[in-house]
From TrEMBL:
Stored PANTHER family: TRANSMEMBRANE PROTEIN 199
InterPro entries, A to Z: ATPase_Vma12
The protein's name in its UniProt record: Transmembrane protein 199 isoform X1
Pfam families hit by this protein: Vma12
Subcellular location: Endoplasmic reticulum membrane
Length: 195
């Protein structure tokens, strides 16, 4: 904590020129001794007595005017040496935090070769997706064709004319196709809803 002031030019000039002649001789001598020392440090206790003496003497000078340009002298705080165990522990903690940060930044990086379309795993997912779509379309076509063929062949026992047989086969194939489309849409909707 600060306990003294480094005297500025205004206070030095007031002591040297005799502006403080009305003050008691002991107080002036203490001020001159404090200013004559190498550091020119004036303790706060001396400044309090100077302030009281200026008031008692009715001096036109005020303490804040005399202290203009002065600085508070702060004592140097000695820095204790660092504990080597603490320094080693801090270094271990810093290294651990740096490793965790590195792992967090690189957790989604894979060792697979990247190309301009993404990783090989992405390519595999895309192939599986395309494969599922191709199988679904093939299944749809086979189901509709089988419904048409069964109805066409089965309707020969009901209808004698070829036009009626084809018309009934187209109607049944359309109904089966619409039902298959409905099931496909519901399946895709369920799969998309899970995403």
């Amino acid at each position: 904590m600060a306990s003294s002031v480094r005297a500025g030019p205004r206070l030095r000039r007031a002591v040297a020129s005799g502006e403080l002649a009305r003050l008691p001789a002991g107080l002036r001598a203490e001020l001159e001794a404090a200013l004559g020392s190498g550091g020119a440090l004036v303790p706060f206790s001396l400044l309090r007595r100077l302030h009281g003496a200026l008031r008692e003497a009715g001096s036109p000078l005020y303490l804040h005017e005399l202290l203009e340009g002065s600085e508070i002298a702060l004592p140097e705080v000695p820095v204790p040496p660092r504990n080597p165990e603490l320094v080693a522990r801090l270094e271990r903690i810093k290294a651990r935090l740096a490793n965790e940060e590195y792992r967090r930044m690189t957790r989604n990086v894979t060792g697979q070769e990247l190309n301009r379309y993404g990783t090989l795993a992405d390519f595999g997912r895309q192939v599986r997706s395309v494969k599922a779509v191709v199988i679904t379309i093939f299944n749809f076509i086979v189901t509709v064709a089988a419904a048409f063929a069964c109805t066409y062949l089965g309707s020969q026992y009901i209808f004698a004319e070829m036009a009626a047989r084809i018309l009934s086969a187209v109607i049944v194939a359309s109904v089966v196709g619409l039902a298959e489309l409905y099931v496909m849409v519901r399946t895709l909707e369920g799969d998309l809803g899970k995403l």
